[in-house]
Design a protein that fits this description.
globular, 6-stranded parallel beta sheet, Quinone Oxidoreductase, Chain A, domain 1, alpha/beta
Length: about 350
Amino acid sequence: MRAWAVVETGKPLQQIDLPTPEPAGQQVLIEVTHAGVCHSDLHIWEGEYDLGSRGKMRLTDRGVTLPLAMGHEIVGRIAKFGPDAKPGGLKVGDQVIVFPWVGCGTCPQCRADEDNMCLKPRSLGVYQHGGYATHCLAPEPRHLVPLGGLDPSLAATYACSGITVFSAINKVMPLPPEEPVVLVGAGGLGLNAIAVLRAKGHKRIVVVDVSAQKLDAAKAEGATDTVLAAGEDTARRIMEAAGGPVAAIVDLVNGTDTARFCFDALRKGGKLVQVGLFGGEMNIPLPLMPIRALTIQGSYVGNVKELRELVKIAQSGALPAIPITNMPQDQADAALNRLKDGKVVGRIVLTAAAA
């Protein structure tokens, strides 16, 4: 198979040839047709996360090995089942969304379809080759969700961007439809979050970003209010847009600055769900946590049950589309650099020549 891989962190992706894997046990060989380019790929490419005063957390310390074909938002065709696979109605040639956040496959979390909580992660595009390649391996048929007529470029984003925001939004619900929900970040995650909230019938969606262009895209997607994050008074402007301190904030950036203004904008009993991996650290006045009965919760991607649920919503026609830019697989490095330079509205999705 051919892959566009990180061979050295921070250096251009290289096209390499690897043996096409033979599916063993319950594995399923997938011929990749579409792969989303996610902001998390930038961290993997750079090889580290910023932990603020604690320094850097290197991906190699977590078991990531190079060369690596990244890409965890994958749509492809089933090419071959392993000898022990139970297809469950799937067949060779079917086009499927691949759930990438897989684990050991045997622990209670994995067997409960909550693989993203496994303590031995084997995520596609992170710990093993993913969608920046002509082929990849799904560990089991249960990690495959039939496309069912969806646009494959858009559907690829549901495997990360979609279920990540779906899972995070579920953590702040239920809320009255008119209760403002604040989303920090108007990239691919933010636009998918707006789409999910609209599909759930939510009426007040406040979006915060540093880019006026991305805020325009958020408005077009259905945000009711937007806030340009600039200066020291972002929290005040969020509260002005929301009509007061807010009950729910989903921080899709999750950096030092965003954590500070999110915390400051919460009302009594408010909840901040942290999703992004921008990096840094959060310093909070501890007495305010109990005095204001606040909740700060991390949310790590989503599970395969949530992917199935989200795909059903999309197949019903209730989930609005986000802007998609298609680029050929062999332009993976250029796509990654466009994302790094902040030149992407919505999502870039890499497509195979035969897609």
